[in-house]
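User: Teach me something about this protein's shape.
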Amino acid sequence: MLNMQNLMQKRQQIEKFRQSSSLSLHQADQLGQSIVSSWQRSQQADIPIDREAAPLQTQKNNKNKGTLAVALDHCADELKHIAEQSAMVIAVGDVGSTIMWSAASGKMRNAAEKVHFVEGGQWREDLVGTNALALSLKTQQSSCVFSNEHYMSSIHDWVCYAAPVIDPYSKNVLGVIDLSTTWSNHNSLGLLAAERCASILQSALLNYQQQQLFIRAFAVPQVLFNGKIVVLTPRQIEILTILALCPQGLNLESLHQALYGERKVSMGTLKAEMSQLREILGGMLGSRPYRLLAHVEADFLQAENALDAGYTESALKLCKGVFLAKTESPFLCAWRDCLESRLSEAIFKANESDVLLKHLAHFPEAIDAVERLIELTPCGHPAHQILLKYREEH
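Assistant: First, the predicted structure itself:
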């Protein structure tokens, strides 16, 4: 733990940086580039000057209760014990920085409730400014935000340590975990503690995912069952994807229509495919109607949930390639068209250039991202002309 004199000096130095109209390279290096960038984004966001608490999400979206929420059920007691023993508040946020679970020691409970650092609290950077949850999700790395590095003055007496929670199989970021206490208790081991809590959640995820089906449909399609890659034909992956999108199940005729449309393929061929799948999945494929009996997670379902929740950046990060690019299934082609339409709509509402540039790197033909970047880039900026030329060439 740093002594009080050092901590006071750190606060005073940060305050000088906050009051400065511009920072030198040396000062930016002292503060940390991630904090500097976050301050810049916070200043550009339309955050009320008098905001003292995070907005609260009034309605729970049960549709988004996925793997992370289930894993949390298995380790919540252990995480709560850590919070109580360390006199801290601990919170788990989803990919959009909305807190889905929290626990606090008596010392921190009132402070947490006052600023809505509780379940339902929305800690997106564009809503409350610089904070560890949003910063860790943005950088996909562990983050510490000390005292007046926070944007909201109501949490200048806090220090927060956060670490992303990463899916063991897909390697996608599923959420974030944060440990917070008062600034006077700042400890260089705080980040390690947050990372340890993230590993507890990831271990619970790993145990849970040993009994589930995970489908990747963006870029290179792949299926994992009980934690292992399953060798399947493209047609079998299409079938599983259709059933993942239709959890209520489909009868043979409906599944045939969804998969083949008007193509002349016999019912017997589809029955044979289903028999092979049932053998591979060990009884996790139900019939009458055909449906998946295992718990299903999929990158395309995560992307859809992110769009439903308004988390454009997360959705774009998940869409790392075309959804089942080679499929001829009318159902899957229609679903892909719908997803791409929703993504395009979200792109035209996006305000962060770096997110759009990353999306453009995966999709060079994404003219909607180019158009939005042109809108966001000042006319006199050199990049504006480059983007105009790019649009003409494509």
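Now, about its shape. Residues 213 and 225 are 5 Å apart (CA to CA). The chain has three domains: 4-209, 212-297, 300-393. If you'd like, I can walk through any region in more detail.
User: That's plenty for now, thanks!
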